[in-house]
Amino acid sequence: MHRKIKFSKYQGAGNDFVLIDNRSGVFDRKDEHLVRALCDRRFGIGADGLMLLQNNKNFDFEMIYYNANGTEGSMCGNGGRCIVAFARDLGIIEEKTVFLAVDGEHEAAIHGDQVDLGMIDVSDIQRDGAAYVLNTGSPHYVAWVEDLSHSNVYEMGSAIRNNDRYKQEGINVNFVEKEETSYFVRTFERGVEDETLACGTGATASAMAIALENGLEGEQEIPIRVMGGQLYIRFHKTGDKFTDVRLIGPAKFVFNGTIPSFSP
């Protein structure tokens, strides 16, 4: 069956996504094969994930997120910022929005290519040895590493993601190293099953782990450098509870396109 599919490509700090305006319902949400094919970097468009922008009578829009392997995923922070930019470029919103994602309601503001995205509150903090385990919309494992720029993140992250504790559900694995004025974070993402240039929920989880590790309290802004750019995480911390969580960073249009015929 031949279908014409219009799409847009966006990236947030190097985390890249295929976005499709699905308000008319032309894209079959159950077609995991097609999602996987579109995300393929050799035979498709190439992306870390795919998002559908859908109508929702109670919100400006609804975000449906797919991992590159075709499965519907948990919340993606960089994807959330990119779909806000997509909605602005489609004329659905102007500078502010409230939209629905898999983990609930999100509020965001966009100015130029910078998106300030509200994230969920977090209060369930667990430990796995020296690492922190927490859910910022997606589950994350956060550990400290020395000489991170030369570390084999694929090998280390894959080993943790596929160990007996995490293999069935999967987990995103973040490695953190302190720098002079920031923190450097590299992430192995489940669903992509590889390192990505950025992970928004991972940067958020890492910032929370940094605050816990250093005993920070109250209003905080923590700069997080990722392979694809610079992110900033803001929140209010009281003990193990994080509220007013914000993920701030770029969301940039790359190109539009049409696949004239794509047979699954």
Task: Explain what this protein looks like in three dimensions.
β11 and β12 form a beta hairpin. The chain has four helices and 17 strands. By secondary structure, the chain is an alpha+beta fold. It has two domains: 5-116, Diaminopimelate Epimerase, Chain A, domain 1 (Roll); 126-250, Diaminopimelate Epimerase, Chain A, domain 1, CATH 3.10.310.10. The strands form two sheets. Strands 5, 6, 7, 8, 9, 10, 11, 12, 13, 14, 15 and 16 form a twelve-stranded mixed sheet that branches. It has a five-stranded mixed sheet with strand order 4-3-2-1-17, with helices on both faces. The protein is globular and about 50 Å long. The protein is 17% helix and 43% strand. The chain has helices at 32-39, 77-89, 153-161, 200-214, and strands at residues 5-12, 15-21, 49-54, 62-67, 96-101, 104-111, 114-118, 126-128, 131-135, 139-144, 172-178, 183-189, 194-196, 218-226, 229-238, 241-250, 252-259. The longest helix is centred in the last third of the chain and has 15 residues, at 200-214.
